[in-house]
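Q: Could you fold this chain for me?
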Amino acid sequence: MKDQILRNVVSARCGVIVAMSVALGFVQYWTTYHSGMVLPPSAPTFLHDTMLFSRDGTGSGLYLFLLPFLAALLGGSVVAAERHSGRMKELLAREGRSRVLGTSLVSGFVLGGIGGLLPLLLNIIVAAALNPHLSFIDGDIVGADGEVPNQYVLIDSSSWAYPLYKFNQPLLILVVVLMVFVISGLFADVAVASSFFTGRKYVEILIPFVISTLWWMLPTLTNLIVPDQWSHIIFLSVAGGASPELVSRNYVGMALSVVLPTVACLVMFLIERRRDAI
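A: Sure. Below is the predicted structure, expressed as structure tokens.
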């Protein structure tokens, strides 16, 4: 597991993710300040320039759409790489099937979490360095008189994240970072588990992206029988608001984003463990 993690962290794939992270941060910054909109003045906060926490830039949506691919790119090929390099037979003979598969899923989870989180983490670091302030900004769009005041809103007061944002901003950042890490790790594990049954190179990298895209499109395909809020693309955009009913759907989406990939990986692990060869 240690070798798998170190090998991938220093690989060209990680360099690609770093380059994509820089590009996503630039898109977020450029579209925030050069989209043609004149933003009202507000208290200084680096979250204004941070993906997921600000709805003014388009980097957030692009980042969340690419998240499964970024996670699988770094962590989804740990088994496929061992198989295509010819090391798998030696590993199976030395470690045993269950141990090899189990450690591959763990290392895939860690690498996927790193790959998916890296763009957000770099964006937070750069934004905080350029604007080292963390001010609370009221999220009530509608004033007491029922009018919409001309004020800047970072996170809408109807967002699921607003109570935590109001209580403790660093804690909210930590919670969102952990959510991104876990969901990314599970996306990577779906790729790892899928690679048990695919013989072609790099196919496993695309599987989580395809599944995520189909899941995101299900509301349209099912005439909203499956809610939008079940997709990570929606509930990880913490700046947006929603009605109380939709907020509860966000929580359902968070639970499904953990439970469904975990169950799928467990099933594929149990099937593969009983096979004679990888």
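A (continued): The chain has a mean pLDDT of 87.
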